[in-house]
Structure formats: structure tokens, C-alpha cells
Amino acid sequence: MAEAEDKALRVELAQLRQEHRDLDAAVEALSISGNSDALQLQRLKKKKLIIKDRIAILDDQLFPDIIA
User: Fold this and answer.
1) What single string gives the DSSP state of each residue in 19-64?
2) How far is the C-alpha of 17 from the C-alpha of 57, rounded, in Å?
3) pLDDT value at position 1?
């Protein structure tokens, strides 16, 4: 993997992790508020799952499991 590509993947990974944390906080805040919109909550959770999947893909690209 080229160094520039590696750096770009690391930047994207950091951004996705931050977005995942932000969504987690938003979901928690909506849940605690008591007047949460169920549809909005469902959309946020779905977006979190999509981001989590993308994070896993990037992790695998950057840090492949090498079985010796």
C-alpha cells in the first residue's frame, strides 16, 4: 500500500470514528430526553451501523490479520 493511500485511509478512519462517537452521543441524548422521535432515533442508529461497518473495512485494510 502506498504511503499516501495509507495516510488517506488513516484520516478517513479518524473522521469516521469521530462521527460514530458524535452519533452515539446524539442517540444517547435523544433517548434520555424522553421526547425522542422514534424514526429519527432509528435513522441515527442505522447510520451508526453503516459507519461501524466502514470502520471495520478500513481497519482490515490498514491492519490485516496475518496468520503465521
Assistant:
1) HHHHHHHHHHHHHHHS---HHHHHHHHHHHHHHHHHHHHHHHHHS-
2) 13
3) 62
Q: Which residues contact 44 (CB under 8 A, 6 or more apart)?
A: 23, 26, 27, 30
Sign of CA dihedral 49, 50, 53, 55: negative
Q: Are 55 and 16 in contact (CB under 8 A)?
A: yes
Which residues in the chain come in under a pLDDT of 70? 1, 68
pTM comes to: 0.83
**Distance from C-alpha of 63 to C-alpha of 1, rounded to nearest angstrom:** 11
DSSP annotation of 13: H
Longest dimension (CA), the chain: 53
